[in-house]
Amino acid sequence: MVDGLHLTSLPPDRLREVFATHGVDVSRARETPEQRDERLRADSHKMRQQWQKQKALVYQHYSLWPGDKVMHFTFSDWKPGLQADSKQARAVGVKVWQLAKKLSSEQFNVFMNGVPGVGKTSLAVAMMNEAKKQGLSTMFVSTIVLQSLCYQSYRDPLVLEHLNHVKRAMKEVDFLVLDDFGTEGGSLDRIQNGSGTQLRMQQVMQEVADARWDGDHNRPSGHTVISSNNFEKELTKIYDPKTISRLIPHEKKYRIGFNGLQDVRGKQLEV
């Protein structure tokens, strides 16, 4: 009995009114098993989407941008006309764009190689933006900034803690850009003879390379896009060959050579 009423004697509509008056949710009272299962699936999907968004924000938080300035670039911003060889520049942009369209359906790494100022970083960022559109989590890491963190981590335990968070994010994120890879390394002699900073950088990159390689299927785990001023042979003198083998793709279709392109940093299209 509620408020003097015998509930068993009330019609369904009146019964729902009584329950609602007392704060009881009766909206699902007529829910069929099929409707309940569909609702639970929808709730689960919504929770997964929210969790993915939260993780994506974490990876973006631990990105390492040069000068702490986030770079924005899309494929529509690519201007082949800045280059003397505009045909080659257009072909490079198309090849990277075609790879970007496959990110959600294939697992692969990309190696962009060329002299400074030809647009390697710009196209890597454009590819990263496309990855976001496809629902992948993304992270940008300037290896020069990463090396600076390694150096500071020997002097500041808080920096070391931050470095460990960055390293974990680099291992886990779906799409990782390693920008200016090799520029931070210096010569082989410099690495072999000394600094703890170099040794820590070596260790970080080896751990990341191992984590981002799927040994069971002999392929990359996720996507790693590398921009570098160095050739692969030079990189094997800076890092352990096993690290390079896991990061640098062997197939030609995943290697983008900016051959014949020139430094156009700061150059504007002529009107």
Description:
The chain is 48% helix and 10% strand. With 271 residues, the chain is α/β, with parallel strands linked by helices. The strands form two sheets. Strands 2-3-6-1-7 form a five-stranded parallel β-sheet. A two-stranded antiparallel sheet has the order 4-5. It is globular and about 85 Å long.
- Report the C-alpha radius of gyration, rounded: 26 Å
Largest sheet: 5 strands, parallel
Overall helicity: 40-55%
Question: What structural class do the secondary elements suggest?
Answer: alpha/beta
Question: Which residue ranges are poorly predicted, with pLDDT under 50 across at least 5 consecutive positions?
Answer: 186-194
Average pLDDT over all residues: 85
Outline type: globular
Task: Name the strands of the widest sheet in spatial order.
Answer: 2-3-6-1-7
Strand content: 5-15%
C-alpha termini separation: 85 Å
H and E string: HHHEHEHHEHHEEEHHE
Number of helices: 10
Number of strands: 7
